[in-house]
Amino acid sequence: YLVFLFARKSVIQLDLANTKKALIVPAFETLRYRLSFPKSKAELLSMLDMGTLFTFRYHVWTKGHAPTNFAKWRTATTPYRVEWEADFEPYVVVRKDCPEYDRRFVGFGWNKVAHIMELDAQEYEFTVLPNAYMIHMPHAPSFDITKFRSNKQYRICLKTLKEEFQQDMSRHYGFAALKYLTAENNS
């Protein structure tokens, strides 16, 4: 509920309805099944410092949320802009008419990465909200992530879909999309 209040205020202040912005809601996680949701950023920071919360997927997929710049977020009082990086997959608030998720990516893998890449290609500005946050709670692995981890054919199929998506990006956006191919090859 707190995230919604902060996001709603930011949507109005940052004129989301009339600009190409993707408002990033910084993501955190806990390994505990029961948690009192922090009622303020100060309380969340205290929980981070105590080790009750962590930046999202810090231990398995740091690249997914690293561009959020959590060190800057700790002291930020105003929204700040970040740049796209390879494998960036933040949680965002965007206009209703933004590009849709690519339907090739169902199940586990690359759905948010591809979406953020498409937003970047369409020149959306990534703006981190300084007083909003979300917390991912632990749960059993999904059927799809279990398949991804255990089934080589699933991983091969996902790799093929990623390559197809990147080729489509190159055809659609031309020279501007080369950075996505280069980033993928270097990661």
UniProtKB/TrEMBL annotation:
One of its GO terms (biological process) is protein O-linked glycosylation via mannose. Its main location: membrane. Pfam families: Glyco_transf_49. GO terms for molecular function: glucuronosyltransferase activity; xylosyltransferase activity. It comes from the Eukaryota. It is found in: Membrane. The keyword Transport does not apply. One of its GO terms (cellular component) is Golgi apparatus. This is LARG1 glucuronyltransferase. It comes from Corythaeola cristata (Great blue turaco). The gene is Large1.
